[in-house]
Each structure stands twice: as C-alpha cells, then as structure tokens.
C-alpha cells in the first residue's frame, strides 16, 4: 500500500528551495533524504507531513489527498496515522518522561510498551523530569513517544543528532523492526550518510531538485 505519494511539490521562502519534487513511500519501506544545511530537507518533511502547505503540488497520504482536507480531518490523520520526530523534541518540560509517554498513550489509545523503553535504554530514567535527562535521553524519549502511537508513517528529522553512532544504529534497528511489524513506512532526514544508507532508498536535495542517489 502506498502510504505517501507526492507529485510536483515546489516551495520557496525569500529564495527558491525546490520544485518538481516527486516521492512515494510504500508500507515496509524506508526512505532517506540528505543534503547540505539550508537545502530544504526539513521544509520538505514538513510539507510531506501536512505541517506546511506547498506553493504547488499535491500530497496524498493513505490514499487520501491532503488538498481540501478539513482541519478536523488533518488532526485525526496526524493523531492516528502519522508520527513526527522533531529535531527539537518538543517534550513537555514540566512532566516526567513517563508522563510524556502517557499523553501519547491517551491520545492514541495505545499502551506504553516496556519492551520499547528497554530497546531505547530509557527504562531506568523514565520517571525523571525531562529537564533532568541528557540530550540523548530526551531524543530517545521523543522516539518512544512517537512509536507509542503506533503510526503508519514515521517522519524523523535528524532523530539521532544527539546520539553516538552505536546508539544511533540501535535506533535505526528499532525503526526497521517497527516498520516490518506494523506495516509502516519511514521518511528520514539526516546529515549522517551511514544512517541514510540503512534506508532502502536515498535521495539528495541539491540545486532545487530531489535526486535519487541509491
């Protein structure tokens, strides 16, 4: 099943970012986007995850076009089908790690799985306040929060930026097993070529175009 299909996507701010972008992701598939800073990788991810409307082009998710979809429909889609891991985490700072996970559990009506916490090596710190966690622990907590929702499509924007390479590879292992088990897909934006190469397809944003390099 095609989880994502985008065609003719173009966008600019004060300068052109990209145009004519076509991309699709099937279930059980992982796709990475690489490129230099400022090339528009995160902006493209925001467009493909419904957080930003493109200048032109169409995004279809789970077989439904995003053009004209109501605000309520977008909220339901994001809550039940999409999982977005941001560079900045966006955790609730006044909460413990467990309370952050509980919010995701309540909104999605899915349980917090102890095996997930063990896989991310945060089971021993989950009851601490977010502000007491290291950057790497917060990053792994944000991954756990998204996977708790059981999304069909994961958008990950530099999800391993605060992690050492060994831990980053363990997170990628977790993504691989998740998309296989849950009939899901992954869109990864990263500067780490070694991690990007773990994905089945790799694209590079350069000279305003999205070019397949693997």
Automatic annotation (TrEMBL):
Matches recorded under InterPro entries: AAA+_ATPase, ABC_transporter-like_ATP-bd, ABC_transporter-like_CS, P-loop_NTPase
Protein name (record): ABC transporter ATP-binding protein
Positions of the ABC transporter domain: 1-213
Keywords: ATP-binding, Nucleotide-binding
Origin: domain of life: Bacteria
Gene Ontology terms, MF aspect: ATP binding
Nucleotide-binding as UniProt keyword: yes
PROSITE patterns reported for this sequence: ABC_TRANSPORTER_1 (PS00211), ABC_TRANSPORTER_2 (PS50893)
SMART domains recorded: AAA
